[in-house]
Design a protein that fits this description.
It is built from two helices and no strands. It is mainly α. The chain has one domain. InterPro entries: DUF5993. Keywords: Membrane, Transmembrane, Transmembrane helix.
Length: about 50
């Protein structure tokens, strides 16, 4: 999931480099929403190891 978030942010920087700011802003806010989802539901859950 972290790799996906980094890839999306890299794509955002690439879009900004090629002056496609509208698409870059949309992708950036989508990435932010996905980051908040990941933080809320995955990063804060307890680790369980079932043996």
């Amino acid at each position: 999931m972290i790799a996906l978030l980094f890839a999306l942010l890299t794509a955002t920087m690439g879009l900004n480099y090629y002056r496609q700011t509208t698409a870059a802003n949309a992708l950036f806010f989508f990435t932010l929403a996905l980051s908040v989802y990941w933080l809320k539901f995955h990063a804060t859950s307890q680790l369980t190891i079932q043996l």
